[in-house]
């Protein structure tokens, strides 16, 4: 863990400040967020900050701890999730050995792309910067242990689950109370984290046991911020299977670490869901998840056009429809795509990962 915290502290503090929304001038000074600053008195030097007004100072971790009101572990996780620095793997030795084996690429089959199929994305609410703190606090109030155990059962190792800040809802009432201590009910309702029950009383959007996946923004004001939350029902046949923010927000892309770092003109796996995207990443492939065909708006497709897309869909009628519609619309807009052909008996990308782990003896 010492090496993990060292790497966190070595993240350039100017990049951390930018992710926190601090506007730093060319002379490496900014208005201090810790007191009523009118003339920039916050200075950055030697990967540390120092305010000559209120005398606050420290490392990148200290800056996040003070601004976000987080502890050491939470602040380190906040930085790590945005700059892709994960804590050391605490999984079993067998799992660790299996992950050191270089992953072979997923099998693929190029197909002739069909004609254009249009499917307009439904209008949705705008995600406002004021919501970012709500989403971040929601994640901070949720424990990780149950989510990590769930994902390890799906072949996703502990360090990956921790690095992506994946959480579980254990006590919805306690989370709601914690949010109300910091935010107004009006803001919580408009952010989609809280909804009203039939009797008019507020409740957390997700119930006990739900696995929560935060989405990290990539560009502009959203860069490094939690911009969306999706919940997954932990019960195999639970209905609904997924539940997102209340209120009809547009569904963004879910980028994996390798996906964010993929070069333009490079390969990028376009997956039908988050677990499949994380599975592709565990097998060494950069990936991004789209939350259904309806989420493939023209804006999202334009974001994906620079890449050579490999569509990894479930091996069922719905997955076949997703692959066909996605490839058709990507072609219509001038992009390139091929469809991954999974082996017989494998229903999706996550099952393919689990079979690979079993063959390598990684599961005992």
Automatic annotation (TrEMBL):
Pfam families: Toprim_2, Zn_ribbon_DnaG. One of its GO terms (biological process) is DNA replication, synthesis of primer. Keywords: Metal-binding, Zinc, Zinc-finger. InterPro entries: DNA_primase_core_N_sf, DNA_primase_Znf_CHC2, DnaG_primase, TOPRIM_DnaG/twinkle, Znf_CHC2. Residues 89-108 are annotated as: Disordered. GO terms for molecular function: DNA binding; DNA-directed RNA polymerase activity; zinc ion binding. This is Zinc finger CHC2-type domain-containing protein. It comes from Candidatus Glassbacteria bacterium RBG_16_58_8.
């Amino acid at each position: 863990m010492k090496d993990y915290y060292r790497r966190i502290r070595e993240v350039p503090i100017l990049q951390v400040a930018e992710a926190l929304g601090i506007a730093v001038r060319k002379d490496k000074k900014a208005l201090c967020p810790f007191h009523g600053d009118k003339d920039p008195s916050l200075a950055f030097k030697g990967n540390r900050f120092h305010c000559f007004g209120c005398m606050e100072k420290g490392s990148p971790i200290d800056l996040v701890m003070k601004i976000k009101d987080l502890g050491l572990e939470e602040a380190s996780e906040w930085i790590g999730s945005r700059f892709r620095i994960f804590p050391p793997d605490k999984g079993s030795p067998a799992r660790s050995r299996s992950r050191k084996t270089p992953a072979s690429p997923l099998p693929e089959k190029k197909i002739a792309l069909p004609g254009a199929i249009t499917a307009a994305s439904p209008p949705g609410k705008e995600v406002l910067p004021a919501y970012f703190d709500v989403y971040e606090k929601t994640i901070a109030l949720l424990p990780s242990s149950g989510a990590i155990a769930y994902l390890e059962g799906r072949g996703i190792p502990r360090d990956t689950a921790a690095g992506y800040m994946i959480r579980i809802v254990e006590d919805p009432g306690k989370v709601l109370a914690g949010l109300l201590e910091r935010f107004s009910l009006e803001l919580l309702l408009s952010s989609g984290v809280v909804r009203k029950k039939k009797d008019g009383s507020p409740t957390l959007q997700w119930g006990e046991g739900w696995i929560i996946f935060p989405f990290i923004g990539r560009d502009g004001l959203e860069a490094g911020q939690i911009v969306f939350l999706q919940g997954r029902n932990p019960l195999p046949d639970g209905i609904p299977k997924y539940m997102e923010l209340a209120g009809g927000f547009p569904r963004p892309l879910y980028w994996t670490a390798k996906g964010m770092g993929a070069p333009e003109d490079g390969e990028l796996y376009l997956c039908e869901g988050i677990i499949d995207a994380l599975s592709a990443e565990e097998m060494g492939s950069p990936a991004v998840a789209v939350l259904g065909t309806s989420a493939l708006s023209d804006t999202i497709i334009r974001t994906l056009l620079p890449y050579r897309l490999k569509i990894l869909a479930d091996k069922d009628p719905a997955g076949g429809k997703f692959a066909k519609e996605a490839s058709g619309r990507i072609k219509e807009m001038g992009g390139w795509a091929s469809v991954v052909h999974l082996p017989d008996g494998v229903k999706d990308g996550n099952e393919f990962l689990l079979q690979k782990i079993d063959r390598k003896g990684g599961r005992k």
